[in-house]
Backbone:
């Protein structure tokens, strides 16, 4: 039986893996992904842990409180029956979204990102928000690690700006082996 | 399905443990032997399919059980 996985198109695939939930790294990752996608190369973007924050819908200041009392239902990639009570603190504390990511340096309690976004807007560069939308329109595949959404109690259907697939580590290894480029941010 | 050589239950385990247990079990099997693996991870079936596709292992049957559990029977390709 021949292998079902086709590695022949290796020059036409790229994988970008975003772990960090910081604005600078998210911009870098989306910059690379958009570059590949614009060049006509198929891009798979993987999000794990805080990296998922960069594709979360912006939300209000008080929205974090609703996670403390949210009734968990059946969601893709989630196993609500294995949830524990202290786990609700994770979405409560991990409240950064696409519009409120911190910088890794020069954060200045949140004024750094405001400054950087002001300059980016002034230079007519895309903001992170626009980059996610552009990546979606260019056909980038968004994929999220399943254990992470289970741990972070993420609702893939409601909380994200884009449609994302839920996959495991086996999917990542296949994507990486098909790809000519794999960037981890 | 009486000629199973080994059974493996990875219920309750989360990614990537089912994949690791599957890999360990497959290494102990010979050519043509069959393995039944049961798991309830949300991406369990996809993981087994990815693994089998890469390692030239045949999937004989996929049977959803109660709840989220899925039973998959695989066979190492090749003659006995």
Residues:
């Amino acid at each position: 039986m021949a292998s079902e996985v086709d590695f022949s198109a290796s020059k036409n695939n790229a994988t970008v893996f975003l772990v960090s939930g910081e604005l600078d790294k998210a911009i870098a990752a989306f910059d690379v992904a958009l570059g590949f996608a614009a060049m006509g190369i198929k891009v798979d973007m993987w999000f794990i842990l805080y990296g998922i924050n960069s594709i979360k819908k912006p939300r209000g200041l008080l929205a974090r409180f609703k996670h403390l009392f949210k009734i968990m239902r059946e969601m893709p990639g989630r196993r609500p029956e294995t949830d524990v009570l202290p786990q609700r603190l994770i979405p409560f504390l991990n409240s950064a979204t696409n519009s409120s990511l911190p910088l890794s340096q020069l954060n200045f309690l949140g004024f750094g990102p405001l400054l950087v976004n002001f300059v980016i807007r002034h230079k007519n560069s895309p903001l992170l928000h626009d980059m996610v939308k552009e990546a979606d329109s260019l056909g980038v595949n968004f994929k999220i690690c399943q254990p992470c959404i289970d741990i972070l109690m993420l609702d893939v259907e409601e909380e994200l700006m884009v449609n994302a697939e839920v996959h495991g580590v086996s999917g990542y290894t296949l994507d990486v082996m098909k790809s000519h480029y794999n960037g981890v941010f | 399905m009486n000629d199973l050589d080994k059974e493996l239950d990875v219920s309750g385990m989360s990614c990537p443990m089912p994949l690791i247990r599957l890999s360990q079990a497959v290494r102990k099997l010979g050519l043509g032997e069959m393995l039944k693996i049961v798991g309830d991870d949300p991406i369990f079936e996809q993981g087994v399919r990815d693994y089998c596709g890469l390692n030239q292992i045949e999937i004989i049957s996929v049977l959803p059980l109660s709840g989220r559990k899925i039973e998959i029977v695989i066979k190492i390709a090749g003659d006995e």
